[in-house]
Amino acid sequence: MAMHTELWFPSVIWSSIVNSINNDDLKKYAYQCKSNDNGRVISNYGGWQSSDLTLDSNSEIEKLANYISKEAQECATQVGLAEVQLYNMWININPPGSYNHLHNHVGSVFSGVYYIDATPEQGNIQFERSDGAEYHIPTKIHKSTYYTSTRATYAAKTNALYIFPGWMRHSVEGNKTTTDRISVSFNIGEKI
């Protein structure tokens, strides 16, 4: 008789491709924001991060916010959470050589990113385990699996949306191209 298997404390990453957003308009808006906002430095090195966006400042941002809110609620329902809401959104413009240090989003249930204009060569997002497994997983393994992996990499690509737990440590690889990687990041929390 086989052992019964249960997954406790899973690290879930949701992904999709969004085709209903006008990225050209969002890209123009991103550069307009950059020209009017000095931005802030949180996990970004060499890149520009906007202040939190006012969701009604641009019709495509509003459309994206509504889409993200709907998807985040689906994610919450899947994992047994009550209603969630979008807490904040900001724009990231990462020129050549820029990257994001390993970090998490304290105070959010979910966090995520939507890529306005990106390619994998401009820096993929990487998620790292934070349960100490690297001290226990043998160096010799039969094959790499979700159980034995200590890092997961998701491609930076235009129209990609990733939603993940706010406590998951993540970083973004350096931009190895001559053009900017442009994205919108966000935090989702309990509905107030």
Structure overview:
The structure is a single chain. This protein is of the alpha+beta class and 192 residues long. It has a single domain, classed as q2cbj1_9rhob like domain (Jelly Rolls, Sandwich). It contains two helices and eleven strands. It has helices at residues 23-36, 59-78; strands at 14-17, 44-45, 48-49, 84-94, 99-103, 110-117, 125-128, 151-154, 160-165, 169-172, 181-190. The strands form two sheets. A six-stranded antiparallel sheet has the order 1-9-6-11-4-3. The model has no long low-confidence stretch (mean pLDDT 95).
List keywords for this structure.
192 residues; Jelly Rolls; 6-stranded antiparallel beta sheet; 5-stranded antiparallel beta sheet; 18% helix; globular
